[in-house]
Amino acid sequence: MRAIGTKRKKKVLRKILTRMRRRRKSGSVAIEFAMIAPVMFVLIIGLIEVGVVFIGQFMLQDAINEAARQIRTGQIASLGTTKSQFRQNICDKVGVILSCDSNLLIDVESFSSFSTASFTNPLKADKTLNTSLNNYSAGDVCNVVLVRGFYTWNVVTPLLSTFLVNMANGKHLISAAAAFRNEPYNTSVSGC
How confident is the model at residue 22 (pLDDT cuts 50, 70, 90)? Predict the structure, then answer.
């Protein structure tokens, strides 16, 4: 009988030791998570921000391409679209991701030929946006036109700023451009 009692005691002791080991391990998991969680959350937030920046870049390029097509085919000239209307057309397409405020700059310039076209750097020497790139000249039939859009994105992820920032004050410049020759969209010109 004594042997049965000893077996039972050993069994109870094993259960207690097993429970103690589990409790000891559960505390270490919480501590490990507390050490890894901040890094993991910064990486996730950074990944989301990079994704949004790329989506914004694609949306701005698509809006500039669409606006350039309207200039190239003469729709802008025939409708008499003003600078503010042209800007609003682009804003309507990018407004989901990019806000249409002072961060968005639209530049439309026309030249007589590709050899006379000059493409000014959008950043000044102090790494700020050149706000003089705010022209609106859709050109005439057979002119070369350069349509550019610039958006300054405020980088919010702290560790990502060293990789994304390309402007002063922690900002990233998103840009899109289209260069083309206008079509002979009126009947007085037969070809370029």
Answer: low
- Contact by Cβ (8 Å): 74, 182: yes
Query: CA-to-CA distance for 39 and 32, rounded, in angstroms?
Result: 12
Q: Is the pLDDT of residue 20 over 80?
A: no
Which of 132, 137, 134 is closest to 82 using CA atoms? 137
pLDDT for residue 137 is more than 90: yes
Q: Where are the domains of the chain?
A: 28-181
The tens digit of pLDDT for each residue in 52-86 reads 999 999 999 999 999 999 999 999 999 999 999 99
pTM recorded for the entire structure: 0.78
Pairing status of strand 104-111 against strand 144-154:
antiparallel
CA distances from residue 165 to 86, 146, 155, 183 in whole angstroms, order as listed: 29, 26, 7, 39
**In the chain, what percentage of residues exceed pLDDT 90?**
53
Burial state string for 41-56 with b = 16 or more CB within 10 A and e = fewer than 16: eeeeebeebbeebeeb
Helix (H, G, I), strand (E, B) or coil at 113: coil
What tokens does 80 get? 């008499």
Strand partners, 111: 144
| Angle at 86 (CA atoms; ends 124, 187), nearest 5 degrees | 115
Q: Which of 119, 104, 109 is nearest to 173 (CA)?
A: 104
